[in-house]
Amino acid sequence: MMSNTEPVSSKPKEHVSWSDSYSLGVKIVDDQHKGLLNFVNELFNHASGKEDEERTYFKAVINEVLQYVKMHFSTEEKLMIMNKFPGYAEHKKAHDDFKLVVIKSVKDFDSGEKLVLEKFANFLKDWILTHIAKVDTQYAEYFKKSPTFKLT
Ligand code: FEO
Questions:
Q1: Which of 5-9, 17-21, 36-40, 113-117 has the lowest mean pLDDT?
Q2: Which 3-state string (H, E, C) describes the chain?
Q3: What is the mean pLDDT of the chain?
Q4: Which of 13-17, 77-81, 86-90, 122-126 shows the lowest per-residue confidence on average (mean pLDDT)?
Q5: Is 61 in the pocket of ligand 1 (CB under 6 A)?
Q6: Ligand 1 centre from 99 Cα, in Å?
Q7: Is the CB of 42 under 6 A from ligand 1?
């Protein structure tokens, strides 16, 4: 339903803004990170404090969020493999662990655990920004130094 995906406020706020300091210098990855932050902003914009509304919105978008996250991780993992990044296994584990945490959260909410959309949005925001700053930067630094870096 349209009403499920429209922001609660008529003026959607940008709660977390893209900063050039997040840029890794790989356009496809930067674009996907911006896409992830857009999802986070949409989640914040639907945090009305009314659990029924939040639950309806969450159910409507969470699969799309998960598919986007999986697509993004897959993009990075292919780049790391293709460019023989030595930290691949550890990085992939961080991705796999995060996917499991999100999937468990979805199951818990489905089983009736209280959903606070703002809390969930904050969790995603913190994980994404920390992961970019501490983990994604590792392959970015490696790619910058690689004389044979390839995107495809
Ligand atoms: Fe951009 Fe490793 O996720």
A1: 5-9
A2: CHHHHCCCCCCCCCCCCCCHHHCCCCHHHHHHHHHHHHHHHHHHHCCCCCHHHHHHHHHHHHHHHHHHHHHHHHHHHHHHHHCCCCCHHHHHHHHHHHHHHHHHHHHHHHCCCCCCHHHHHHHHHHHHHHHHHHHHHHHHHHHHHCCCCCCC
A3: 93
A4: 13-17
A5: no
A6: 12
A7: no
| 53-54-55 Cα angle (round to 5) | 90
What is the predicted pLDDT for the residue at 11? Answer: 66
Query: Cα–Cα distance between 91 and 131 in angstroms, integer?
Result: 10
Given a cut of 90, is residue 8 above it in pLDDT? Answer: no
Of the chain, the end-to-end C-alpha distance in Å amounts to 38
Total length of the chain = 152
pTM of the model: 0.91
Give residue 51 CA to ligand 1 midpoint distance, Å. 30
User: Percent of the chain scored above 90 by pLDDT?
Assistant: 89
Q: Long-range pairs for 74-78 at CB < 8 Å and ≥24 separation?
A: 75/28, 75/29, 75/32, 76/29, 76/136, 76/139
